[in-house]
Amino acid sequence: MKKKEISFLKKLILSSILILSTFSGPLNANRKVLKVGAIPDQNQEILDKRFNLLSKELSKSLDVDVKYIPVINYVAAITGFRTNDLDLVWFGALSGVQARLQSPNAIVIAQRDIDKKFKSVFIVNKKLKLDPISNIRGLNKLKNLRFTFGSENSTSGRLMPEYFLNEAGIEIKDFKGKRAGFSGSHDATIVLVNSGAFDAGALNKQVWENNLKNNPKRTNNISLFWITPDYVDYHWIVQGNLDNRFRKGFTEELKSTILNLDIKKPEHKKILEMFNAKKFIEAKSEDYKNIELIGRKLKKIR
Amino acid sequence: MIDILLELKNVNYKYKNNLILNKINLQINYGDKIALLGKSGAGKTTLISILNGTINPTKGKAKFFNRDFNKLSFEQKSKISTIWQDLRLIEELSAEQNVNCGLLGKESFLFAFKNLLNISSFNKAHKYMQICSLNKSIYSKNIRKISGGQKQRVAIARSLIQESDILLADEPFNNLDPKLTSYIKNLILISKNKNKIRVPNTILITLHRLDLLEGFNRIIGMKNGEILFDLEKNKLKNFHLNKIY
Amino acid sequence: MKKLKLTPSSITFLPVLVCIPLAYELLINFHSGGIEIFKEFTISAINPKINNEIIITLIKRLNETIFIAFSSWLISIIFGVIFGILCSDILYKFLILPMFLKRFIKLILTITRSIHEIFWGLILMQIYGINFSIGIIAICIPYIAINAKVFSEQIANIDLKTIKSIKQINGNNFSSLITLVWSPVIETFKNFGLYRLECAIRSTTVLGLFGIGGIGTSIFSSFQSLNFKELWTYLWGLAFLIIISKELFKKINLFNTPKNFLLNFVIALFFFSMFSLFFFIYFIFTKNTIPSNSINNLLILNSSFFSNDFLKLFLETIVLSLLSTGVAVSFPPLLILIFNNKIGISIIRSISFLFRLIPPPLIILMLLMFNNPSISLAALTLGLHNAAITSKLLLGNLYSQDNKEYIAMKSLGVAKRSSWLLGLFVKQARSYLAYCAYRSDIIIRETAIVGLIGSVGLGWQLQESLSSFAWDEVIIILFAYSSIAIFGELINGKIKRNLT
C-alpha cells in the first residue's frame, strides 16, 4: 500500500473513534438509577419543583440515585413506563389504568388522601346566564353549546366529565358542531371558556379553585355550573421488577418511604404541600376497577 | 502486438428510422494518423461515438483490440480517449478539476473524491494545461467563466492526460485561432515532442479545413453515412475532395 | 365582456377569493371575550421574564433544540443525497441494477414524505416512549424523503452527453458517478441546505410542543399554564437562535477552509452518518416494540369507524388545505401591492417574521381568543404561517432582481403600484407560483398540526385514537392522510411542470 493511503486510513480510524465515543454516551446509561416521572397535568415549573424535591428525599432515604424525568405528554408517560424509561410514575386514574394494562407487572403503591374523593367542575361563560345546577340532570342545558374538555387522557378533565354527561343523557354529538374541543390543559380550558371561544368546559376542581384565588382576571366571565360527585384519581405506580434490579424488598421500602412522609417534619411538609396533600395513603389496583369500566365504555381503553 | 486496434465490419447505425451510417468497413492500425473529412451531417460524429464505444452499431460488428466492447477490461477501455465536438466538460467544476477528470481511469476512488473537494494534487493537470498553452490564471476558474478557445484547450488537455493509445477527436480545432491550431496540431501529431509527454500513437481527427491535412498519413472521406474513399495521404487527389464536398 | 386571461400573475391574485367564505365564517363567529388575555400576551412580548433561572433553562432548551435540529438536518441531508442518487437514473446507467429497485425506493420515499414529522413523532413516541432520539428520527424520516426528492430532481438535470463523455474516460464506476453528481449536489446544498436547517429548527420546535423536548416543550408548557412572560422569553430565544444560525452559516464558507481540515470534515461527516444509521437500527431493535395485544387489534378492523364522521373529517382536511393554500399564495403579493412603500414593506417583513417564529398551534390558540373554533380559523392560521414563509421568498426575489424595467416604467409616469406590478412582479410571478405549488405540498401535511389543536380534520381524530392506543384507527387515518398528500403532490407536480 502507498504511504498516502496508510495515512488516510489512520485518519479514518481516528476520526471514527472520536465520533463514536462522543455519541455513544447515551447508550451506556447507568441502569442503577430510579427514574421518576409524572403526567403533565400542571405547570411544568410546579411539577419540576415538586418532583425534584421528592427525588431528593427518596434518594436520601433509599440510598440510590433518583432522577426526575419531565414528560410533557400523557401518552409519552404511559409508553415511557412500558419501555422501562420510567420506574416510578405519578399517574392519573385513567392513564394509570392504561399504563397497567400495557405493563401487567406494574404495582400500585399509594395515593393521596384527597384522591379518594376527587371532584371535577363544570364551568360556563357568564354570557349564557346559566344558573348553577344541583342535580346531574341539569347538565342537559349544555346541549347545543360549544364544549371543551382539557387533555384527552385526563381523568378529571375528560373521562369523568364525559361519564357524567353520559349519565345525564348527553353524548358528544349533542354539542355544537357534533364535537367537543380539547384545550390541552385545565388552565387552557379556563381561558378558552372565559374568552367565549367555548361556551362551557370541565376541569379539575383543584385547579379551578387555585385560579379563582390567584387569577381572578382570568375567571371574570366564568360562572361555576356544577360540581361532580366523588371519584378516585391520581396514584403512584412502580415497575414490578425493582426488587431484582436494586435489592430484595426495594419496592416495599419505596412504598413505606412515600407513605411515611410526615407533615410534622419540615422537609416532608414542603413535599406534601407541593402535592396539595396532608399525607399519602395505601392504594390498591382494585380501587380503580370502576375507572377501567368507564374507560372501556367511553372507548378510551380498548 | 496487435496491429489492428479498432475494426468496424459492415456497420449500420439507425436513429429514429434514419440511416446515419451505412455499411461502414474500417480498420484502424497502430500508428495511423487519420484525418476524417466530410460535410457536416456526413456521420463523422456518429462514427466517432461508435469507435469509442459510447453507442452500439445497429447492425454489423465493432471490434476493439479484437474484442467486443463490453468484454474489454477497464485498462483496455481507458486506452481510447475522445475529444468531443461539444467538449462535454463538467460545467460546475473548475478547469483544473476538469482536466483531472481525465485521470479517473487510472486513479482510485479516493482520487476522484479528493479532486471534487479540490484537495488532490494538480501538478500533472497543470503540466498538461501548460503544454496546451493555457494561462495560469484560468487554472482554478470555473469552466462557465472561460472563453470558448480556452474550453477547447481544457478538453484537449483532459484527453491528453489520459495518456491513451488512441485519440479520437471531433473537430478539436474549432474555437482556436490559426497560430494555436497549428501548435496544438503539432502537439498531437508529432509523437516525439519536446514536452516529454506521451501522446497517443494512433489518431483519428475529423476536420473540415483542408489546409490542415499536413502531418496525417491517411485520409478518409465520408458522405451521407458512407465511406467514399480511404487513402494514404500522398494518393489524395482533388477529385476525391470534390466527391465529398 | 373580456375574458380574464390566466397568466401566472393573475393566478397569484385569484386565490384571494377564498377570503370570501373565510371572512364570512370568521365574522359571524367573532367575539371579544379574549381581549384581556390577548392584551396580556402582547404586553408580555416587550416585557419577557428574565432571571437567572429562566435563562439557564432557556440555554439548556436551546441546546437541546440545536442538537436535535442540527443532527437531524445533517443526517437528513446526507441520507437525502444517498437516496436521491439511489432513485435517479444516473445510478442505473453506471451500475447494473434492476430498475424496479428505483421504482420501489421512489414509492417508499413518496409514502414517508406524505406523513408529517409530527405524526411520525407521535407514533414513535407511542412505540418507543420518551427518548431524545425520537425527535431526531421523527424529523429525519420525512426530511430524508423530501431532500431525496429535491436532490434527485437536480441530479436528473445532468446532461446526458456529459454522462457519456465521463463514462468514456472509463474510470472506476464510483469515481465517475461521484464526479458527475458532485456539482448538482453541492449546488443544491448551497441553495437549499440552509433553508432546510431553518425548517429543521422549526420542526423541532413544533415537535417539542408535543412533548419531544427542546425549546418547543418549554414554549408549550408555559403557554398551557398561560405564563406569557415566560413564553416570550422562550420565543425570543428561539428567534435569536434562528437569526444567529443563519448569519453564522452565511459567514462560514466551507470551501475556503484549509484543505486538510476539509477532508477530515468530510470523513467525520461520513462516519457520523454511518454511526447514526447503526444507532437507529440498534435503537429500533433493542427497545421493546408495540405490545402484542395492539398488534392483534390491527387485524380486527373497527367497521363502525368508517362512518360518515370519518368521511367528514377527510373532506374537512381537504377543504382546510385548499383554503390555507389560497391564503398563503395570494396574501403576500396583495399586501406588498397595497402597502408598497418602505415603511409598509418593513412592517410586512417584521410581521411575517413573527408569524414564522410563533408555531402554528400557538397562533391558533391566540386566534381562538377572538373566534370560535372552525375550519376557517384553522385555515387562516395555517395560511398566515405559510404566507409568512412565501412572502419572505417573494420579497427576497423581488428586490434582488434587476429593476431597470421598474425604473423605466416609473420614468414614463406610470403610477407606482402599476409599475411595481408590471416592472417587478410579473417577472417573478412564475417562479413564485412554482414555489407556492411546492409549498402547498407542505401545507397539506401541516394540516396535521392545526388539526391536533383546532379540533378540525383528521389531525384531531389521530390524537384521540393515539391516546386511546387504538392502532387500527391510527393506521386508517394515516392511510387517509397520506393518500390526500400523495394526491396533492401529483397535482402540484403537474402545475409545476406546466409552469416551467
In short:
The complex is a heterotrimer of chains A (302), B (245) and C (500). By secondary structure, chain A is an alpha/beta fold.
As a whole number of angstroms, the C-alpha radius of gyration of chain B is 18 Å
- Indicate the mean pLDDT of chain B: 86
Percent helix range of chain A: 40-55%
Radius of gyration of chain A, in Å, reads 24 Å
Tally of separate helices of chain B: 8
Characterization of the model:
By secondary structure, chain A is an alpha/beta fold. Chain A has helices spanning 3-23, 44-62, 74-82, 93-102, 155-167, 186-195, 205-214, 242-245, 250-259, 266-274, 289-297; strands spanning 33-38, 65-68, 88-91, 107-112, 120-125, 147-149, 181-182, 200-204, 222-227, 235-238, 280-282. In chain A, the strands form two sheets. A six-stranded mixed sheet of chain A has the order 2-1-3-10-4-11. Chain A has a five-stranded mixed sheet with strand order 7-6-8-5-9, with helices on both faces. In chain A, strand 1, helix 2 (44-62) and strand 2 (65-68) form a beta-alpha-beta unit. The longest helix of chain A is centred in the first third of the chain and has 21 residues, at 3-23. The radius of gyration of chain A is 24 Å and the shape is globular. With 245 residues, chain B is an alpha/beta fold. Chain B contains eight helices and nine strands. By secondary structure, chain C is an all-alpha fold. Chain C has two domains: 1-30 and 296-500, MetI-like (MetI-like fold), CATH 1.10.3720; 34-289, Orthogonal Bundle (MetI-like fold). Chain C contains 22 helices and no strands.
